[in-house]
Amino acid sequence: MKTKLYYWSLVAISLLQGSLSFAQNSKKWTLLKGNKIEWKVRAGENHEDHIEMAGLQTAAVVYYGVRNGRLLLDKKIVFPMLRTIPNNTHASLTVPFQDNKSLLIKVDGVGVDEYPLSFGLDGKLSVYSKTNSPLEIQRTLFPAVDKPVLIEQVKLVNTGSKPLQIDLINKYSKFYSDPEKSVYGQYVVQALLRDSLVPKLEPLQSYQFNIVYEGKKITEPAYQYSPSYELGKREDFVKGLAGDLILETPNDTINTAFAFAKIRATESIYDTKGGLMHGPGGLSYYAAIWANDQAEYANPFFPFLGNRNGNESAINSFRHFARFMNSDYKPIPSSIVAEGDSYWNGAKDRGDMAMIAYGASRYALALGKKDIATELWPLIHWCFEYLERQKTDEGVYRSDSDELEGRAPAGKINLSTNSIAYGAYRSAADLARELGKDDLSKLYLQRAGELRSAIVRYFGTDVQGYSTYRYYDGNSILRAWICLPMTMGITERSAGTIDALLSKYLWTNNGILTQSGDKVFWDRATLYAFKGFFMTGATERALPYFKYYSSMRLLGDHVPYPVEAWPEGGQRHLSAESALYCRVITEGLFHIVPTGFRKFSINPSLPKEWKYMRLRRIRAFDRVFDLEVVRRGKQEFLVVKQQDGTIIQKIILKNQAISITLN
After folding, report:
1. Sign, CA torsion 568/570/572/578
2. Taking the CA atoms of the chain, what radius of gyration do you get in angstroms?
3. In 218-352, which ranges are E strands?
4. What number of H helices and E strands is found in the chain?
5. DSSP reduced 3-state for 93
6. Which long-range contacts (C-beta less than 8 Å, at least 24 apart) are formed by 445-448?
7. Could you report the per-residue pLDDT of 582-614, keeping only the tens digit for each?
8. What is the DSSP letter of 480?
């Protein structure tokens, strides 16, 4: 076995070197100051990409790039609260717009062709183009923070020596929904041109007009939008996110990827009639919540960022799940959709109760508000009572499927449900203690210990030559979710599991495959794996892979966020994956584990090539504080700076977590 592992370690190093070379050659974008990236178009270069952006009332996927030298700039705009019939998961009104067919710009009577020079991303999309005339065009696209519109600002600049006669011909057509297939009556979606009476442009003169892509009920009155005001609000939103939970390391790419991930994780929140609902997006998933995307992935992140909408959406999601508690202990639906009016449970129990109990416990501890924890406790307790009814003679829990919903085999007892249940029991034990429920705290700790032993006993085995876990009874090939035990603090078999995840069977240039022999990858599994690597102290081995991944997602061919999957969905920028990226840092590299309303354990893994890493303005535990890990000589130190000026300094010892209690 040692010979085989050594051989595959050499293979992994060779593959990684190839990946890093690929990464260097595939970087299309470059970092700029102020959390901005830029793509300067090379002569003859053709490339197309897409990005999702969102506000409380709308979302848009913008398709941009260079096609045969000319600008591509199309949009699909989603209006989550304009519901269609049948009012199910996918019933958000979505309307496409194609600029090159809908808005004609003429210079001295000749139609303009745009040839992009550069693209920029910083919470909005900017495009700079030359044309087949002395006119240069600058476009800026962004969603309104709280209105059902996408706004496109267009600036025309005369770079020539003669005046230019500019004409705008609006060919945008209004879209009217079928009132018989619209929940709230007929809708109208239209592109409104603002300030479009362009004067003759003198040399070096510029002029700006705006396109407002609006969706509304036909009975609603017209609204006078102010694009510059909406732009200011969008920029304030992005600036506000940049000013909290600030990552500082010697690696600017990781710092910037973290800053971008905060945007995507937080912007995809919709102000529905059922309250704020954090939705994945991707042209499919809006005004709805899921037990995995929201309860498990995104919600535990929001207390650390401290964003008001994020925290409200998290609390609201648990309130919606709690509506479905019942005395018969039938499972809570996997997803609550249509602004809370309906639900989806097509895959039956995916381990959803474990996901909800885990997310709610971690969230309540990290938020640090006893009243919210008290409100969430009945839901957490109910989920555990449900789980106990699924316990088998082997001491593990059965579920109908897992979060992949049948896309890959999961059997009737899977590693995902059980690993998450273990993490849920551990956090719930801490939460019960904080709420004065000492007997339940002891019981949950006992159940966690028993479940940990049962997981290792039932799932632990050799798979394809690696001492790791089978995913279910009868599973004989490596699976991506073997990373989950590590992320929940189960360290048995972690060495073999890391070897397996980074082996030729699972690791690829796009991250970790769902299963050996497949071509499908999901970023959520790759991000969980990174978190597990760092939590178990495999930092030196994992860091090159994480730097490569961060570089590809931020600066490669499809940017700037983590993605859902491929080929399914075409690498959509689903929101919760960005929250998982941030948690790789907070819970992986820094290894922060909430243990009380003002208390956490921390066991950071400072890479040898770094002298420091910091998280500034952490908003968790109902406090604001900074964390710094710094190396002085051969010794590493943890420095906690609290808002009241109190400083806690601790020596970091290998594999020994430090307990911190805030004032």
Report:
1. positive
2. 26
3. 246-248, 269-272, 275-278, 289-290, 335-337, 342-344
4. 15, 35
5. strand
6. 447/384, 448/422
7. 999 999 999 999 999 999 999 999 999 999 999
8. G
> d(Cα 142, Cα 231) in Å, to the nearest integer?
7
Q: Which of 40, 112, 25 is nearest to 551 (CA)?
A: 25
pTM of the model: 0.95
Instruction: State both tokens at 292.
Output: 């995995």
Give the Cα separation of 96 and 173 in Å (integer): 11
DSSP reduced 3-state for 579: helix
How far is Cα 582 from Cα 164, in angstroms, rounded to an integer?
49
Structure tokens, 227: 């694009």
Q: Residue by residue, what is the 3-state secondary structure of 459-476?
A: HEEEECCEEEECCCCCCC
- What is the rounded distance in angstroms from the CA atom of residue 161 to the CA atom of residue 624? 56
Expressed in angstroms, the distance from the first to the final Cα of the chain is: 50
Q: What is the pLDDT of residues 562-583, one digit of tens each?
A: 999 999 989 999 999 999 999 9
Around Cβ 590, how many Cβ atoms within 10 Å? 25
Give the HSE-up count for residue 663: Cα atoms under 13 Å, Cβ half-sphere: 11
Which H or E run contains 307? none
Which residue, among 243, 173, 245, has the nearest Cα to 213 in the 3D structure?
A: 173
Length of the chain: 663
β-strand partners of 106: 111, 167
Domains of the chain (ranges plus CATH)? 40-237 (2.70.98), 243-600 (1.50.10.10), 601-661 (no CATH)
CA-CA distance, 110 to 132, in Å (whole number)?
9
Which DSSP category does 292 fall into? I
**Residue 11: is its pLDDT beyond 70?**
no
Q: What is the pLDDT of residue 16?
A: 53
